[in-house]
Amino acid sequence: MKWFFYIVFFLSSVGVGYAQAWQDSLRRGKELYEMGDFEQAYQTFLEAQRLAPSEVNLSKDIGNAAFRSQDYEMAKKAFHAAENASENRMEQSQYWHNIGNVHFETKKYHNAIESYKQALRADPNNEKARYNLAEAKRRIEQESEQQNKNQEQ
What we know:
The protein is mainly alpha-helical.
């Protein structure tokens, strides 16, 4: 019986160690992000996600750090994962807005427009998405005008 308690204590302390490890990584990732070390924050968030229980989703943090590190493909994947995991329409709108920003930064303005529209479908009051939608349309118009000028020359 005495050994049973030792085994239970050992197994529970191992579980606490893992819980502490992912939470420490998450805390460190947030500190690094606040300090502007986005690449290291991104790596730390990935480590925290790897160590975290399966019900913990750090996609938002991973996406934000990846975006700020200019790893746009990973940012897009992370924001899609966060959007799929969320049932909150306002959160979904924010994730679609972020996906639109990824497309905007990579000059994929048509894709950005579709993402901003998705953001507005989820939350018609998302003014940032509305503004960025107009800006993406303006950029397409500018590119079209520039192409027309180049063809005339």
